[in-house]
Specification:
Order of helices and strands: HHHHHHEEHEHEHHEH
Strand content: 5-15%
Number of strands: 5
Structural class: alpha/beta
Radius of gyration: 20 Å
Largest sheet: 5 strands, mixed
Mean pLDDT: 92
Shape: globular
Helix content: 40-55%
Low-confidence stretches: 1-13
């Protein structure tokens, strides 16, 4: 049975940000209807897997993966059902998927139930179970971190491309690192009714060894299908001419709406998006904060 849940879409009063986008009264009934649809779909997913072996049995070989890399399903545990319901119960999550599909409940529910399945089975353990200990190689590099907020009160993430080496990374670990960072931001980063983020991609010192098409394809697919309507703006900083060829390939994987959120900028323009007092000194700002993997 599906537990009762409050369907009110809770946001704070207007915080002065263009990203403050409360749901209109006319659309709130759809948020409620969508909840019922999603709970029915979740019940069906659980029922479909009731006769399957457990996670421990499925993942004993190759971490439960098929030859094509896809994840084998297993019987739902009570804890997995609780986590899935909690995630669906959050109206912010439901609104993200509705907005991503222009408030078409059928299309949004198809997208969201796939995200539910992915969240539960990611790398044989689920997104909620990734720990910092598993991604220490990535954390130690300082290639990506969260710090501060931009002028629209969006949480800011920095990605330093030159610190990523395609030939040295472990794909499973870098994917877990990416998901870990997304979950951390979702759980701790958003505030004041603003639910989209700002990502700064620093391409200073970029070389071809830093271009990782396999990982980038994963990340783009993940953002668009499992964390839709999360990106507010992507700032490409210090882009060299070498990256133009890479961008021609990457943009094919990005939907048109998301492409419009990508801006190529220099350091001076960065300060138009983020107050210099909150920009690290390494990017010409006044903030003396420095990255430390122990703070994650």
């Amino acid at each position: 049975p599906v537990s009762e849940v409050s369907h009110e879409y809770v946001v704070t009063s207007d915080c002065g940000s263009d990203e403050y986008r409360p749901v209109s009264d006319a659309k709130k009934p759809k948020v409620v209807e969508f909840h019922s649809v999603m709970m029915d779909l979740l019940d069906k997913k659980v029922e479909e897997c009731k006769d399957l072996p457990s996670n421990e049995e499925v993942c004993v070989e190759n971490n439960g993966r098929n030859e094509d890399g896809s994840q084998k399903p297993w019987k739902w545990t009570n804890n997995e059902i609780v986590l899935a319901k909690q995630w669906i119960n959050n109206p912010v999550n439901r609104v993200r998927f509705l907005r991503a599909r222009r408030w078409n409940i059928e299309q949004a529910s198809e997208l969201m139930i796939e995200a539910v399945a992915w969240r539960r089975t990611f790398q044989g353990k689920g997104v909620e179970n990734i720990t910092a200990e598993e991604i220490q190689n990535e954390l130690q590099t300082g290639k990506a971190y969260h710090h501060g907020y931009d002028r629209q009160k969006r949480p800011v993430s920095y990605v330093v491309a030159s610190l990523h080496d395609n030939s040295e990374r472990d794909l499973d670990e870098v994917q877990k690192f990416c998901v870990f960072m997304m979950e951390k931001q979702a759980n701790e980063g958003f505030k004041d009714g603003v639910y989209r983020s700002c990502i700064v991609f620093d391409l200073g010192g970029f070389a071809l060894r830093n271009m990782d098409y396999q990982f980038m394809k994963f990340m783009i697919h993940m953002l668009q299908n499992y964390y839709p309507d999360t990106l507010g703006v992507a700032l490409i900083l210090n882009s060299p001419w070498l990256f133009s060829g890479c961008w021609a390939i990457l943009k094919r994987w990005i939907d048109p709406a998301s492409q419009k959120k990508v801006n190529f900028i220099d350091v001076k323009q960065l300060h138009e998006y983020i107050d210099p007092d909150y920009v690290p000194k390494s990017y010409g700002g006044n903030d003396e904060w420095e990255y430390s993997p122990t703070e994650i």
